[in-house]
Every structure is written in C-alpha cells, then in structure tokens.
Amino acid sequence: MPVKLNLDKLDFQIIQEMMEDAEISYADLGKKLFVSGGTIHVRIKKLQEYGIVKGTRLSVDLKALGYDVIAFIGIFLEKSSLYDTVAKELKKIPEIVRLNYTTGNYSMFAEIVCKDIQQLRFVLHDELQKIKGIERTETFISLEESFARNVLVNDTAAG
C-alpha cells in the first residue's frame, strides 16, 4: 500500500520554485515564500526523504557542446517479457539518455543524443542490433526542439 504523502501548499510552492531555479538559496526562497530559510531546509529534506526531490541537475546546451543530433527510437521487442533484459542492455549505451516502456506501436521508446550522424549510425547499427530481444527499430531524427519544460505542480494535483 502506497505511503500517503502529507504535502501542503508550501511544499508545492517550494517544488515549483526550485524547478524554475535550483540555484536559489534557501534564505532567498524563504523570503520569496514568506517563511524562514530554516523552514525551507527542513521541507527540502522531507521532500528528499519522500523521494520527490532527487537532487539537482545542470541544464546544458548540448548543441553548444557539439551534440548536433537528437533522435527518438521506437523499439519493437520480440516479446514484452524481454523488457527488463533489453532495458538493462540499453542502459549500457551512453548516448541513450531516456528510455520509456510504452503502449501503442512500440514496446519501448528511447531518446538518443549524438555528436553527428556517424555516431547515430554506429549506435543504431553496431550497438542496438547486437541486443537480443529487439525485433526492429524505427528512428525519428529531431529537427528542432521547440520547448522543454517541467510540469506545473500545485497542491490540487495531490488531492
């Protein structure tokens, strides 16, 4: 039975503010939300213990670092019972940055980031094709990412 999380409006405000700017100090966030920095610290600790807050990440412009190809791969499995085994193998490929188990046409859907088309070809041809259980794949190359954002959280979502 899942644990009932006792989150209130302040918890959701902290989550939303930190998703927008994870570098904000607890003191500044406290001022913004009209509570003490100590209260923010205690709440963040609670959110970490619940597993809601899982650390912070640096947002990087991949294109500026020379990663020019973002692609999505629909993966057809020979049978769905192979998901865990295939996922474990896919996790070994560093260019795959996200993997989802899906409904619909594909068993799995992966996001892949590469420096160029040659690297993408290598991953598709030399890495993915070796994995037992993958029947076939379908690749979609992203021409442009129009936007990326976090979900808007609020206290009515937990209701």
TrEMBL record:
Name of this chain's protein: Winged helix-turn-helix transcriptional regulator
Molecular function in Gene Ontology: sequence-specific DNA binding
SUPFAM superfamilies: Dimeric alpha+beta barrel (SSF54909), Winged helix' DNA-binding domain (SSF46785)
Domain of life according to the entry: Bacteria
Gene3D superfamilies cross-referenced by the UniProt entry: 3.30.70.920, Winged helix-like DNA-binding domain superfamily/Winged helix DNA-binding domain
Any one of the GO BP annotations: response to amino acid
Keywords in alphabetical order: DNA-binding, Transcription, Transcription regulation
Record-annotated HTH asnC-type domain positions: 7-68
Gene Ontology CC entries for this record: cytosol
InterPro entries assigned to the protein according to its UniProt record, in alphabetical order: AsnC-type_HTH_dom (IPR000485), Dimeric_a/b-barrel (IPR011008), Tscrpt_reg_AsnC-like (IPR019888), Tscrpt_reg_AsnC/Lrp_C (IPR019887), WH-like_DNA-bd_sf (IPR036388), WH_DNA-bd_sf (IPR036390)
SMART domains: HTH_ASNC
Record lineage: Bacteria, Pseudomonadati, Bacteroidota, Chitinophagia, Chitinophagales
Leader sequence residues: none
